Amino acid sequence: xxxxxxxxxxxxxxxxxxxxxxxxxxxxxxxxxxxxxxxxxxxxxxxxxxxxxxxxxxxxxxxxxxxxxxxxxxxxxxxxxxxxxxxxxxxxxxxxxxxxxxxxxxxxxxxxxxxxxxxxxxxxxxxxxxxxxxxxxxxxxxxxxxxxxxxxxxxxxxxxxxxxxxxxxxxxxxxxxxxxxxxxxxxxxxxxxxxxxxxxxxxxxxxxxxxxxx
Length: 214
Prior knowledge:
By secondary structure, the chain is mostly helical. The protein has ten helices and two strands; from the N terminus they run ααββαααααααα.
């Protein structure tokens, strides 16, 4: 297919397609003349993936590039998913050293309890988790941090569903791509479902009437 058809099928404007080609996010097509190239269904799929990562996942193009490099490289699906998680996490907010140390200790206990492999803080995903727990402590939200074990058990179930999305796929490329999509879109889907569930449970537990007196 030509550039115009590629744009129409993917829903990505021609100018944007050309930009992705220049930046190396989209592999070049098969050259048919000095100024013309032919593109395939694989190009359409790659553009749709980029669109999902940017529009729904909210990733900047630099992060999208890192994810696509991991997909196209020789890394295992497991390591590629690690790249995705790091890019999704972004930089962690600053918290006090004391609160961060406390949060790290709390996480270590939960990891031991669940028999997980411990990862020293330093990656973006882990640093964000430590920062979130530290912030909860600084805000005095002890009930939240006290129930971390329950959150961990729920996280295991969600992770099992996530990995179930790619289980049974035989192509490494398909496993990686499906895993990336499940991680990026799965976060948004689960967050939306969580909000719907919170609305329902809040109505049942807290009531939907007037605001409580201050």
